[in-house]
Amino acid sequence: MTPKPAVPAPEVRASSLDTRRRWRDVALLGGLFVLVIAGLVSLAAATGWEETRAQLMKLGLPQIIALLALSGANYLLRGLRWHVCARRLGLSTGLGQNLRHFLGGFAMSVTPGRLGELVRMRWLRRETGWPVERTAPLALVDRAGDLAAMALLLALSLALAASGIAFALPVALASLAAAWVATRPRLLAQITTLTYRATGLAPRLMGRLRRSARSLALFSSFPVAAGAIALGLAGWAAEGYAFHLLLVWMGADLGLAKAVAIFTFSTLAGGLTGAPGGVGGAEAAMIALLSLDGIPLEVSIPATAIIRVTTLWFAIGIGLLIFPVAERLSRKAGP
């Protein structure tokens, strides 16, 4: 009798699938990074290497450390918000555990729609036993908190800036509207119900979505919402201030309010393009807005490259370092 081929155990198959997905995400990450760098290098070559090099030489190690420290403050403040919301949801996870999940998720920031960041839900399921539909409100509140904080920061900086930015108000309003919808439990539950009635598809999934939407009621009170927005506002303001410092060091001081407005608008606009991590769109918007304010390309190009490396790519680097640790510890904790 011919022996039947061995069938891999479910956990082995899942592990193999996770490995393939991880390599796919790394390939996507590397490809995006190469494309952005190639575009910036081409622009720098067109404007003259000497001028660009002269601007880069104005920065030393202390300045780079300061930029990274301000970005780190942003991540820690938003990580603290994740911890507060996790405890509000009823999870018994500690501060270190929640920071590990939050920062480790940055490794997946450049997946389409940043859906890869939902890996945090998988870690929570393994370590706490909570299903995804119970922890999904965390992801919604986190995204809504960022959108609301950045919209308010953009509006405030524009109000204080000497000149405005075209289309900034619609972007700010769209961000606030998205944040409001994402935190309305009844509205989301109704949208889910109407979708199911219209399509009749995936009744189990729709039921889980409705249960997740109802859990958002825990975050609807003013003190909780205000606290979440305040932490996000302080975090993103730190990165906006870093952009202001960078421009000052490169001899292109536009004022604090305008620098923060350009940074915030470009980050939001990049996200609206749908590109993973806003890569490409954010850089293009930043260079264009700086040019409109009279900043030459030999300054705007290196300034854009440096601030993106010390914000987005620094976060991804932190995530790549923490991701394997978070994955290993979650596997030890549960299936």
Précis, in short:
By secondary structure, this protein is mainly α. Helix content is 78%, strand content 0%. The chain folds into two domains: 50-183 and 223-333, no CATH class; 185-219, no CATH class.
Describe the structure.
This is Flippase-like domain-containing protein. It is a multi-pass membrane protein. InterPro entries: L-PG_synthase/AglD (IPR022791). It comes from Histidinibacterium aquaticum. The chain is mainly alpha-helical and 335 residues long. It folds into two domains: 50-183 and 223-333, no CATH class; 185-219, no CATH class. It is 78% helix and 0% strand. The protein is built from 13 helices and no strands. The chain has helices at residues 10-47, 49-56, 61-89, 95-104, 119-128, 132-160, 168-182, 185-199, 203-215, 222-249, 256-272, 281-292, 297-333. Helix 3 runs antiparallel to helix 10 (222-249), helix 10 crosses helix 11 and helix 10 (222-249) packs across helix 13. The longest helix is centred in the first third of the chain and has 38 residues, at 10-47. The chain is globular and about 60 Å long.
Q: What helical percentage do the residues reach?
A: over 70%
Distance between the termini: 35 Å
The overall strand count is 0
Count of discrete structural domains: 2
Tell me the β content: under 5%
Structure class: mainly alpha
Instruction: Note the total helix count.
Output: 13
Tertiary shape: globular
Largest sheet: none
Tell me the series of helices and strands, N- to C-terminal: HHHHHHHHHHHHH
Poorly predicted tracts of residues = 10-14
Rounded Rg: 22 Å
Arithmetic mean of pLDDT: 79
Transmembrane segments: 26-47, 59-77, 148-181, 216-237, 243-265, 304-326
GO cellular component, one term: plasma membrane
Subcellular location: Cell membrane
InterPro entries: L-PG_synthase/AglD (IPR022791)
